[in-house]
Amino acid sequence: MTSTETTQTGGKFTWRFTTPVLVGPVLNPINTSMIAVALVPISRDLHVATSVVVWLVAGLYLASAIAQPTMGKLADVFGPRKVYIVGLVVVIVAGVLPNIWHDFSAVLVARVLIGIGTSAAYPSGMALIRDQSLRLDRQTPPSLLSGISIAGQTTAAIGPVLGGVLIGAFGWQSIFLVNIPLAAIALITTLMWVPSDKNRPARTGPAPTLRDIDPIGIVLFAATLASLLVFLLDLHVDMLWLIPVTLALAAALLWWSLRHENPFIDIRMLRRNGALSRTYLRMLLIYFGAYTMMYGFSQWVQGSAGYSADQAGFVQLPTAVLAAVTSVMVANNRRLKLPLVLSGAIPLIGGVLLIFLHASSPLWMLLLVAAIFGVPQGLASVSNQQAMYRQAPGEQLGTASGLSRTAVYLGSILSSAAIGLAFPHSPTDGGLHVLGIAIAVIVGAAALLALVDRSLNSPKSERVGEALQPK
């Protein structure tokens, strides 16, 4: 990002501004992925059943899915810098908790707090970038947007590797401690170098109030997601009553959002903005495949193929490397259709290959399958973020960015349900084959959705962030 490393007085984004904006958003993806290789060690050390330890994943999913748009809404209304700072403090507290309270409850609480705290970073960061673009009266550099995506994608991909190394050397508690230095760096640089919210570009309309937050909409949204998550993670006949409850809550959320002047979830905007709604749907489908591979494959490698936690992390190293390389290669790409079609088509091939794996498969075959999933992760991360940034209304960018992460976590929640169905007691070859079929079908649908989406046929000259400029 050399083009951005000039002084702000010259109308450019400086490295001082970009540093905290890039560091904070890596906290959520790295925590999402590191836990993949920690579930088995935590289960053994704390004597917790597999069906219970999965709530460490689900707890962060649920907290993040709800908190991402909530933090984005707060950032839009009260200022992204304030929200960002509070979130980073929460992360630091959560990183300490499991190391002073050695109990599963503490680990679960820490994961929920991490989900809430890290959820402030991405939507706040996107809102900070928008404010800086307007403040400097210039377009947002594509390299900065891609940098956020690359940083998040790379850390998510290396999470299992890093988690395996930390667990092997220091125990599973170390995956929580790693949050402290990262959050501290982001916190200090934000306090030093990010402009105060008092210097935000002028906001049109009346001063923000509690009504602009729409607490009723937030509660209905949270209740709907919580009900859905509990049902998906416990798919038994005696939980079927949650289906009408979830539908009723969703209907109430829809009714409220259509009648509220400034709703938490702007249904009217999503209905008008079909391109943005389709981007959210693609993200849900694509990340269903990514997280099913990350968690399901990792559990199978440890539970069926017989590898240790650190070895399982290294098996997914090709995913990390190729995801990072691909993200860099498409960082400045302006055409979105081909990358988004490929981000769904390539995992379809990977899903088919999973069907041919078994516990005695050679290591090279496991590495090959892991590598195949790296390229689409890089393509999807950069291209979907650029699509969302172009399509989202500027005044709602924080909320829209948060909703994009909610779409990712809905894909993760569905992934957890699929893994639970495929591995009801322990990972098996047959269960892995079922997951391979699910990945091929669902992520293949994302490729088809991108292929027929005319809104992705943007001219090559379209500049990222153009929708954010004042009319």
TrEMBL record:
<feature type="transmembrane region" description="Helical">
    <location>
        <begin position="313"/>
        <end position="331"/>
    </location>
</feature>
<dbReference type="Pfam" id="PF07690">
    <property type="entry name" value="MFS_1"/>
</dbReference>
<feature type="transmembrane region" description="Helical">
    <location>
        <begin position="403"/>
        <end position="424"/>
    </location>
</feature>
<feature type="transmembrane region" description="Helical">
    <location>
        <begin position="150"/>
        <end position="170"/>
    </location>
</feature>
<keyword id="KW-1133">Transmembrane helix</keyword>
<feature type="transmembrane region" description="Helical">
    <location>
        <begin position="107"/>
        <end position="129"/>
    </location>
</feature>
<protein>
    <submittedName>
        <fullName>MFS transporter</fullName>
    </submittedName>
</protein>
<feature type="domain" description="Major facilitator superfamily (MFS) profile">
    <location>
        <begin position="17"/>
        <end position="462"/>
    </location>
</feature>
<keyword id="KW-0812">Transmembrane</keyword>
<feature type="transmembrane region" description="Helical">
    <location>
        <begin position="430"/>
        <end position="452"/>
    </location>
</feature>
<dbReference type="InterPro" id="IPR036259">
    <property type="entry name" value="MFS_trans_sf"/>
</dbReference>
<feature type="transmembrane region" description="Helical">
    <location>
        <begin position="21"/>
        <end position="42"/>
    </location>
</feature>
<feature type="transmembrane region" description="Helical">
    <location>
        <begin position="215"/>
        <end position="233"/>
    </location>
</feature>
<feature type="transmembrane region" description="Helical">
    <location>
        <begin position="176"/>
        <end position="194"/>
    </location>
</feature>
<feature type="transmembrane region" description="Helical">
    <location>
        <begin position="83"/>
        <end position="101"/>
    </location>
</feature>
<feature type="transmembrane region" description="Helical">
    <location>
        <begin position="239"/>
        <end position="258"/>
    </location>
</feature>
<feature type="transmembrane region" description="Helical">
    <location>
        <begin position="363"/>
        <end position="382"/>
    </location>
</feature>
<dbReference type="InterPro" id="IPR011701">
    <property type="entry name" value="MFS"/>
</dbReference>
<feature type="transmembrane region" description="Helical">
    <location>
        <begin position="338"/>
        <end position="357"/>
    </location>
</feature>
<feature type="transmembrane region" description="Helical">
    <location>
        <begin position="48"/>
        <end position="71"/>
    </location>
</feature>
<feature type="transmembrane region" description="Helical">
    <location>
        <begin position="279"/>
        <end position="301"/>
    </location>
</feature>
<keyword id="KW-0813">Transport</keyword>
<dbReference type="InterPro" id="IPR020846">
    <property type="entry name" value="MFS_dom"/>
</dbReference>
<keyword id="KW-0472">Membrane</keyword>
